[in-house]
């Protein structure tokens, strides 16, 4: 149990938070990475998912991309990206060491939940609602913006929430392959036999993950209450991230 | 003997450098797989062992938990809440948190992965038991089935399609997550990936990565096969799918899509 005391000491020491490579700087890097990757994935994934859902095409792809994403270890993909000539391990502005490689991997791993949930969300709009909209003489575009999208929102939102948790976890794993972020506190601790430090890093990562999830869940609930959406309570199955 | 050794040493440099030599360092290299067969097989074996142990432990814990949660609705909320919180913690942070209790051992990785599998499996079991139609349950009771026999003979078999969908998700993600166990040196193929990154050894890295995906899909196929054998009635008319979707509504179908 001595390691627990070491971890506690590391958490309380001011020097482990501040300064170059301190936990605050790493936390900032990781949050920046997480947010950027999530936004990129939304920018790419949402139009594709919602478009496919609206057209009713490519369902096999949209649904199975999650299965494939789950089977590919994040660690392996990160390792390949870092070992490739490009983007390699160069520092990338405020994103830190191996910033681009990590950013690419994070974006890729945020896509499956966004695409699958977005597609399913549009497809699950009840058929009678669709028919009613058609019967009212709505065009395809009107149907999409005024019927499908509002009804799909809750499920889309839970996909984004899943993606957020996944991206945070993946950003931590990036440290296993020389990436930036808080994971480095963990890996440095373990590789140098300073287990107290490693455990302290793990505590910080876990606490921030829980906070992110709480914030996302709160935002989702708030949005749902405002819309008074009848389908707001629906959530999809979660799965852990590696 | 020394003569043959010398001969081998002399002929080696003359031949083409192998595709995994420092100079070429190719991504895909069958020579590597052939020459380091034992190392690769050991890692794959460890990977498989960790995955199977973790999922088995997850199932062993999930069944009683799900049954308890079904009996006590108040417990269900806390079990589900706890499992959501747990899945939020990244694997690379969960393993260190277990280290003070289980040390740098395989147990740490197995327990950590079992906890993740558990979060998926408890949901799947609850969801599956809920998908059993009430009239079926009533008929069975009317036929004189007790609680235990009802569970084993009626409810579990009918819950199987949903449970198996959860088992597939849990197994496939466990295979991927096992690689992170390399943090405590028990990561199966993850150990090779880590070594491949640190020594810039592309063939080793790619072989391990590809094997991970292959293992994941192989286990997935195995579970699908087992499900087909265990639930022959689902194949007759695709009736289960329709019943399940109708019963559990949106969430049931959404989960199917997830799975």
Automatic annotation (TrEMBL), chain A:
<dbReference type="InterPro" id="IPR051204">
    <property type="entry name" value="ABC_transp_perm/SBD"/>
</dbReference>
<feature type="transmembrane region" description="Helical">
    <location>
        <begin position="151"/>
        <end position="178"/>
    </location>
</feature>
<dbReference type="InterPro" id="IPR000515">
    <property type="entry name" value="MetI-like"/>
</dbReference>
<keyword id="KW-1133">Transmembrane helix</keyword>
<keyword id="KW-0472">Membrane</keyword>
<dbReference type="Pfam" id="PF00528">
    <property type="entry name" value="BPD_transp_1"/>
</dbReference>
<comment type="similarity">
    <text>Belongs to the binding-protein-dependent transport system permease family.</text>
</comment>
<protein>
    <submittedName>
        <fullName>ABC transporter permease subunit</fullName>
    </submittedName>
</protein>
<feature type="transmembrane region" description="Helical">
    <location>
        <begin position="67"/>
        <end position="86"/>
    </location>
</feature>
<dbReference type="InterPro" id="IPR035906">
    <property type="entry name" value="MetI-like_sf"/>
</dbReference>
<feature type="transmembrane region" description="Helical">
    <location>
        <begin position="198"/>
        <end position="219"/>
    </location>
</feature>
<keyword id="KW-0812">Transmembrane</keyword>
<feature type="transmembrane region" description="Helical">
    <location>
        <begin position="31"/>
        <end position="55"/>
    </location>
</feature>
<keyword id="KW-0813">Transport</keyword>
<feature type="domain" description="ABC transmembrane type-1">
    <location>
        <begin position="27"/>
        <end position="216"/>
    </location>
</feature>
<feature type="transmembrane region" description="Helical">
    <location>
        <begin position="98"/>
        <end position="120"/>
    </location>
</feature>
